[in-house]
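Why do we care about 3D structure at all? Because function follows from shape, and shape follows, mostly, from sequence. That is the central idea of this module. The next example makes it concrete: a single protein chain, its amino acid sequence, and then its structure expressed as tokens.
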Amino acid sequence: MNTAVPQRRSGFSFLLTDRGGRILLSVLLVLIIAVPILNLWVPESSPFHVPTFVVSLLGKYLAFALLALSVDLIWGFAGILSLGHGAFFALGGYAMGMHLMREIGGRGVYGNPILPDFMVFLNWKELPWYWLGFDMFWFAMLMVAVAPGALAFLFGWLAFRSRVTGVYLSIITQALTFALMLAFFRNDMGFGGNNGLTDFKDVLGFNLQSDATRVGLFIATALLLALSYALCRLIVTSRLGSVLVAIRDAESRTRFLGYRVEHYQLFVFTVSAALAGIAGALYVPQVGIINPSEFTPANSIEIVIWVAIGGRGTLYGAVLGAVIVNFAKTYLTGAFPDIWLYFLGAMFILVTIFLPKGLVGTLPAFPSLSRKSAAKPRPVSPGAPPVRQAAPGE
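And the structure:
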């Protein structure tokens, strides 16, 4: 029997048919070029000048966009609804914060070249073993992805091999982030307790308060968002992505066909957690603090809302949703400080009722990647027997 041989794309051709992705990458390229020029070379008296605080704000939005992208990868294409991704985001942020605290050295309030100020205040005598190595940038950057990735691998291995799915998986991911929040609030954990890590001075020898450093962090965030989008797009348009969509839509059938479903789920869950950790590491130096409030379960639920508003299963929709919602929060908290939550709640409700596919999913020019791939007919080679269409309910 002749069978069709799927055509595999080479190089970066998987981006050529991605209209939304091309627009996203183009916007990021424009921002990478325009923002530094408008901030560093356009005088402050000019109406075209972009203040440094706006640069940091845009960088924070892009870090949140990367976080939303990581959630859409597992929720939109594998059907894994995680309500604990804020934990992976916070772990990456703490890894970066630990490095920035070690970078302070003897310039802290107490002048201790080894111990951070909060450890001196709490009468710690020596640096805990899990702080060792964070004085090296490369080690800290490795931990930014490895720490959340390792936790996700361990958690996912236990959950997926036990076939915990659906709402039960969502509940235990939320329990995970709540447990971590309670642990990091403890002073004896060695992470600053409820105050967290702050008072950062520099990164790689560059002053964090300087305009050039802020612009550099913004550029790094935009570049990593672009690379992460390309990675996610590569995954979901590959054969692996087809299996993930099959698992999402019919897990039992996929198992019957011989696929080790838990392996695919574990892989994509670990990759997603590592991306969330990278987002947290980019977020911390731009806001200047990381504390246990980042583990709050409500934060993880909000991430899911970003993805739902932007458009689940589109990747670029998640990016758009994160930017729009956080921009709205910034504006509404300043314009309507007493009732801004009502505006956000109304926006969530209206989008859920009238735009169930999200802002991007309702536009015919930007279809969902998962729906598009599922609807694409399979090529049939000459001489192959006709494919029987499944009857309703099969």
